[in-house]
Amino acid sequence: MRRVSLRALVLSAACVLVLIAGGMIFGLSFERAVFLAPVLLICAGGVAFLLVLWTKVIRDSVRGRG
Fold first, then answer.
1. Is residue 44 within 8 Å of 25, Cβ to Cβ?
2. Percent of the chain, pLDDT > 70?
3. Rounded to an integer, what distance in angstroms lies between the CA atom of residue 62 and that of residue 10?
């Protein structure tokens, strides 16, 4: 039997959570959410990227003042 890595398990769980959350937010049925899973995951990744980027910009800006 093949062992599953922890990283793969965590990423799979995160994808399923994004799928469920996106379906609930947009009022999609589970089948429709599965069909749109790539779009939901790309959008979630873009939002996460922007949050990290702006957090870093704000942190660096605050550090530069002091």
1. no
2. 98
3. 33
What lies within 8 Å, CB to CB, of 30 at 6+ separation is 23
pTM: predicted TM-score of the whole model, two decimal places: 0.70
Say if residue 66's pLDDT is above 70.
Answer: no
pLDDT score, position 22: 87
SS3 15: helix
Mean of pLDDT values over 44-57: 95
Quote the CA–CA distance of 27 and 57 in Å, as a whole number.
34
CA separation, residue 23 to residues 1, 11, 31, 54, 60 (Å) = 34, 18, 9, 26, 35
46/63 Cα distance (integer angstroms): 26
Q: Under a CB-based contact definition with an 8 Å cutoff, are residues 23 and 49 in contact? A: no
